[in-house]
Design brief:
lyase; binds magnesium ion; o-succinylbenzoate synthase; O-succinylbenzoate synthase activity; Enolase-like, domain 1; 12 helices; alpha/beta
């Protein structure tokens, strides 16, 4: 197994709960299995995954990539596991002569997957302007970040969006910013604005409280909770209607795929998004979304957040859709 490091600058710095991000650093992972090369990507994001140093250490300790995936050996280093598992899946699907999404189980050709636009914090006018742009670009759904200002200000932003975009699916993502009483107060207003989904309204470990927020006219989606608590705990607590699956934070597209399958058995839907990954991981996330029938619009239009990239193998969103690579494996090896 061969690894080499990369740094990808962001188009503009991103403020997150875990701090300011200006650069995405990670590792390209290259394996050879029975003579077939496979390439993966490990791009850790502390707060969601292990650190860069821990990722590098874990990758450096792998001697046999396929057996390294067995028995949860890389379970505490999800980005490293993502890189190794993707390289192995890439090699195997390439050897099988199939695009990754077909290898993951989809039995029909899928040309493209629907994606949502993401709108960060801003004034009511700026938020509504960004929403209008997204609708003009024909995104079928928009996700608005909330929680950086008080609930009244956020509701004013969403009222401005709905007034100018009467038909678009609106989701909001609070990244755990609210307490239960704030969420209880806000939910009826969100329902009145026909907001479809509220993502991670409460802190990640508050599964029972999330369960109490369901069935109020707005679906409850969990993101941070899924990474922190796991799908078993989320299902046991009946804490969500929808899971937001970040393959890099969950340990790989194989893990994310089986998690979506498990959740669906319990009536919980799943969708796919990224942690602002390079194009090797983004392509894999597109394949993952394409591998699942009836997938909702996913958070995969994140390539524009990077000022540089690993390959040009993933196209930008066009009319709210991203094309699914149709060659063998994930993307052509380089
Ligand atoms: Mg989220």
């Amino acid at each position: 197994m061969h690894i080499d490091s990369f740094s990808l600058p962001l188009s503009r710095p991103l403020e997150t709960a875990a701090g300011r991000i200006e650069m995405r650093r990670g590792f390209r992972v290259r394996v050879e299995i029975n003579g077939t090369v496979g390439v993966g990507e490990a791009t850790p994001l502390p707060g969601w995954t292990e650190s860069l140093a821990d990722c590098e250490r874990a990758l450096g300790a792998v001697d046999d990539p396929a057996s390294a995936l067995d028995g949860g050996r890389l379970a505490d280093v999800p980005a490293a596991r993502h890189g190794v598992s993707l390289a192995v899946l890439d090699a195997r699907s390439r050897a099988a002569g199939r695009p990754l999404y077909r290898y993951l189980g989809r039995d029909e050709r899928v040309e493209s997957v629907a994606v949502n636009a993401t709108i960060g914090d801003g004034s009511a006018t700026a938020t509504a302007d960004a929403a209008v742009d997204a609708v003009d670009e024909r995104f079928p759904a928009i996700k608005v970040k909330v929680g950086a200002r008080g609930p009244a200000a956020d509701l004013a932003r969403l009222e401005a969006v709905r007034a100018r975009c009467p038909d678009v699916e609106i989701r909001v993502d609070a990244n755990g910013a609210w307490d239960e009483s704030t969420a209880e107060e806000v939910l009826p207003a969100l329902a009145a604005l026909d907001v479809a989904v509220v993502e991670q309204p409460l802190a990640a470990d508050r599964l029972d409280a999330h369960a109490r927020l369901r069935d109020r006219g707005v679906e409850i989606a969990l993101d941070e909770s899924l990474v922190e608590c796991g799908v078993g705990a989320v299902v046991d607590a009946a804490a969500a209607d929808l899971l937001v699956c970040k393959p890099m934070a969950l340990g790989g597209v194989d893990v994310a795929r089986s998690l979506i399958d498990t959740a669906r058995e319990f009536g919980i839907d799943g969708l796919v998004t990224t942690t602002i990954d390079g194009s090797i991981a983004r392509a894999a996330a597109v394949h993952l979304a394409a591998s699942v029938p009836k997938m909702r619009p996913c958070g995969l239009a994140t390539g524009e957040l990077l000022a540089g990239d690993l390959t040009d193998a993933v196209e930008s969103a066009a009319d709210g859709w991203i094309a699914v690579p149709q060659g063998k494996g994930n993307i052509p090896p380089r």
